[in-house]
Amino acid sequence: MASVTSWLARLPIRARLTTAFALVMTLLVVGLGVTVHVSMASALLDEIDAGLRFRAVATVATSTAGKVQTPDPALQEPGEAFAQLLTRSGQVLSTSQGFAAPLLRPDELAGVHGPSFFQRRVPTVVGTARLLAIPYQGSTVPAVLVVGTTMSDRADALRHLRDVFFIGGPAAIALACLAGWVVAGFALRPMERMRQQASAITVSGLDRRLSVPTARDELQRLAQTLNGMLERLDQSMVRERAFLERASHELRTPLAALRAEVDLSLRRRRSAGELTAALHSVSQETDRLARLAEDLLVLARADNGRLPLHREDILLRETLASAAALFAARAAELDVTLSVDAPDLTLSADPLRVRQALVNLIDNALRHTPRHGAVRLVGTIGPGEVRILVSDTGPGFAGRLPSPEPYEADSSSGSGPAALGLRIVDAVAASHRGTVRIGRNDDGGASVEFTLSLAVDPDSVASPRR
Description:
five-stranded antiparallel sheet; 10 helices
């Protein structure tokens, strides 16, 4: 059975459909043939039995005492119908011409108390004979009247029926298989067309789509599903290309600054102070490159916009203060006030991911906040979530607000350098079943709020750190 299943699995779909159609048609034809044969055999036997009953009644009516007379022998073929009058002991009292031997044995005659049917071979009768025995009261001794007929006509009719099925059945199955092969090919033609169209689609041509059949069937749903997949792949390729372009742009700036500082230092002899300043600038650009490389690594690990989490119980205020402490020296150098306001709330979150989001937001806020400005970190509790707001008193977002998606960020508005960081924040929020909202302060500065759901996703509780 397993080998047959494996063999069928290797067949083309069209061949499998035709094979299944042939099997079903074979079962139907065989079942129909058996049913018709049994029904006709039973009907013909009932017809013979009814004829024997009629002849028995007619024979009794026309017979005289001790002598059997056929109602109309001229209407019957020789050996086709016959009658015999027997005693219970098997003695023949009267018989049709050519039937001298008793048709029934004495033991069979003794058991005849009503109409009884027998089926056997009888000399001079073609084929099997059907006999009807009934008690006969028109004789001086107890007797039994036996009437019989040949069953050759019934056998010929059944044989002809079998011949019709043996010849016509395979022909009908063959025609049905041919029709199934043609219909299967016609039904699969849209699939072949979709296969040819799909084979012509390449990475550089993902904007092409498959033709959708007009019939509302499985092929139409398959085409719609494949077109949806192509649409998602196309959008993903667009995002990836935009992401690579933005990442290249982000990396080009610090690399160009590093090269300029090194070239400037090598152009002529520098004093110790100038070399210290140049090395300080190189260190800042190196830190920026390291941060960009870390951000790119984080985004590369994101699965459908989500990051693997390793949840721990953390204090909200302590987490915000720890992230702000990393930028305390830079804020003091820029003369920017960096403040934290949050309750001492314990929540389950990934401390590393939350820290990455805060570092990106604080870094971006300090970059755009003028001297004597302020950057605020505010943590609040909402219904089923924790909100973390990072706002500044800088110029805000010019034009339309940027999107966490890098390919949607408007570089002309000055949001290009922040787009990568916003993507990190969006991935962290999505991994914690939260959201990101970008807006403007009342005083014109920028604000970014991201939420962390207090409900724990069971799939992210024990995910290993990668």
